[in-house]
Amino acid sequence: MKTPVKIAVTGAAGQISYSLLFRIASGELFGNDQPVILQLLEIPQALDNLQGIVMELEDCAYPLLDSISTSDEPNIAFQDVDYAFLIGARPRGPGMQRSDLIGTNAQIFAEQGQALNRVAHRNVKVLVCGNPANSNCMVTIANAPDIDPANFSAMTRLDHNRAVGMLARQCGVSASDVKHITVWGNHSNTQYPDLFHAKVKGQAATRLIDEHWMSDTFVPTIQNRGAEIIKIRGLSSAASAANAAIDHMKTWKNGTPHGDWVSMAVPSDGSYGITKGLVFSYPVTCQNGNYAIVQDLEINKFSLEMLKTSEAELLDEKKQVKNLL
Ligand code: NAD
Ligand code: LMR
User: Fold this and answer.
1) Whose CA is nearest to atom 1 of ligand 2?
2) 130-160, pLDDT tens digit by residue?
3) Which residues of 241-269 are buried (b: 16+ CB within 10 A; e: fewer)?
4) Fewer CB within 10 Å: C terminus or N terminus of the chain?
5) Coil, strand, or helix at residue 66?
6) Does 42 sit in the ligand 1 pocket, CB within 6 Å?
């Protein structure tokens, strides 16, 4: 048997975790020969509820679930972890923007960055999901100076999956026929789901869809999908978010399929003229546990304006968290 991998999940009693934990414990993320140790973090008031979830995990009798620990102390939950899913944060309600959460949530990520820096494995891979995810990720990185910034990313895979699904439905094909979708920028309503490089069954998507459908329907629908779900469901997306978190980590660990890329929000190295250090969603390929930003894509005037709008929003968010950086 392999040595178990240690996985921290914060906000472990929340909605997203209720879908995520069972999928990790079943072996779906790390494979059916890889035991896992779950190190779960919650706030003190949620620990009782979390105990009920631990009981449910135990009742699944997952062969690969080595052990589970719970804590309200990041220094304990992050001890030696190889992977960290930073989900614990307040979700937005109807009528709110994700950036309205910055005042409440960013501080959580400063503290958790410091704890990761103190006790996590030096190669820990960290996925920030709690909103506003890009800026929270930037705060986490700034507070973990001894861990390589390339080990941190924020989740735009849900937006990516939404874009793949919507284009596939429009073209009447399977999601697996859609390649080279990119979501650029912030996980907010300035994000830019870009179809200019997308392929459907090997053909340029722009040859199959109407340009007005792209700019007037596709782009705003993806940008506002999270808010629409909150309006209709009364709660923010949870199972689809957990699914995207699994997809994100799985791709990061195992690599992108040949001939395709995914969207990940990662610290900018200046690619495509974006300010260095902002956590910006890019098209990336992954190999051997590392990601690389896809270079040299042609960016037309429409796309450039969209990228710059999202960058400007992230610069504004950066000002709001400057005391945590
Ligand atoms: P939820 O309210 O159901 O669960 C959040 C949990 O986090 C709660 O149990 C809460 O007690 C816990 N928590 C709060 N502060 C904590 C802290 N300091 N340490 C540990 N745990 C803490 O919310 P949810 O629906 O699971 O969503 C969680 C976050 O993920 C929200 O910020 C939401 O907006 C965000 N989200 C992001 C994406 C994305 O695509 N990036 C998608 C969906 C949701
Ligand atoms: C989403 O995209 O569904 C999440 O970020 C939740 C939200 O606030 O929209």
Assistant:
1) 226
2) 999 999 999 999 999 999 999 999 999 999 9
3) bbbbbbbbbbbbbeebeeeebbbbbbbbe
4) N
5) strand
6) yes
